[in-house]
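dumping this here before i forget
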Amino acid sequence: MNLSTFIPGLQLCGAFYHEAVRPILAAHFPGLEYSAALIGHGSEVLGFDDAMSTDHHWGPRLMLFLHPEEHARLESVIKITLANHLPYTFRGYSTHFSEPDPNDNGVQHAEKIISGPVNHRVEILTLAGYFADDFGFDLRAEPTPADWLTFPQQKLRVFTAGAVYHDGIGLGTQRERFRWYPQDVWLYLLAAGWGRIGQEEHLMGRAGLVGDDLGSALIGARLARDVMRLGFLMEKVYAPYPKWFGTAFQQLDCAAELSPHLQRALAAQTWPEREGHLVPAYELLGRMHNQLALTEPMPENVRDFLGRPFRVMALHGFSDRLLEQIHDPAVKRLASKPLIGSLDLFSDNTDLLESPHFRPQLRRLFE
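structure:
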């Protein structure tokens, strides 16, 4: 695929809905109430797809959300109707896909055909079913702090990102419910983010001081990631999964000033040089914290670490001041325990983040 001819997925799928899918639904299912969207998995949902993305799981596709009773009655009928009436290609892309490959995580590839029904990727869903399958949560319930802290940010991001092309059953309302954390959960997460920095900002120099350059660099990289995480939290933006973490970070307001410091810290060869680049990043976080006006004004400059030759920021007590602002009794109980933060802060294991089946056990950490 030539880059000059690439059509971003959100744009392609929007046109696919309006020009190909909607007319078929209107002709064969007049009066049907549904929402049409592209959310969830896929680089195109985040707007980060490019020509390379087209090699798998990519092409003219859509998600149709129906009321539960209509879904039970019409799912297979709609799927067959679309299979028999969709064009074989749309804007130069095949609408027919291979069967899921069991040896490659169910990946489907676009395949050109000239006859027979289209094995399309128009998914027929319900909102409750989608959320149960992807989050392990009943949409009829109100999320508790334990729920919020065990919803992976990467899933919250792709549920609230993407595009809604038509909304007849309230998909937009559900997306707004999960647009961002409740205030006290947010305060708890900010405190936990500062706590992570406080646990390791002095260790980077200590490892370097005894000649462990590799260990110091590793801790420095972890600190850079934690700085970035706080940047996402402070700007109230969910962080995506690792492939797009840095790309999404560059879209934050703080990235222009933070990124050069973090890049230099990651490239540094010695711990003093590395610390010299992390310090202005810490101090920028301090200024950002004060701009949020969530607590009394906090120091915006680093300090020495308890008489040792390391410059630190979190020791000023950002976490404690944030926790003092929490009022929700359930979150206050969490705040009285060690600040493990959300699932994203204590694990980056892909299977743990992606599988909703672990959530019942994970919730017990917060109950």
